[in-house]
Fold this sequence. Notes:
Layout: H1 2-27, E1 45-49, E2 53-59, E3 69-73, E4 76-83, E5 98-105, E6 116-120, E7 123-129
Antiparallel strand pairs: 1-2, 2-7, 3-4, 4-5, 6-7
Amino acid sequence: MAREMWEPMRDLMMLQDRVNRLFEGFAQGRSPEAEIERGDWVPPADVYENDDEFTVLLDLPGVRREALEVDLNESRLTVRGERLADQKNARRLERPAGRFVRSFALPPTVDRTAIAADYRDGVLTLHLPKQRQPEAQRVRIEVR
Length: 144
């Protein structure tokens, strides 16, 4: 029964992710017919912002570090991976398993050359530093 309750939630999360990607695609001038990569499940994520960086936390318990792939393609950061489940000996499966894909559109203020990732205790932390904006300088111009 718990498995049946999870399926609609997973489907709803996948639909929400797809709709978000479609809207982002429209905003960036991409065709809605463009192929959208799908996974078997969508990991939950939190996004934080402070003066120096954006931080993205993805809950990925049970995912091996070697199974994670983080890519940057233009202004889209994508995390892919797979969580394996022991289907043979399982009596009850409530945690999602299989391949997952999660993408984030990056704002133009992110320094793409300084992005870093840490994976600890089942949480993938992506650090997206902001570009340093040069401070405005006042220049006195002499009138002749």
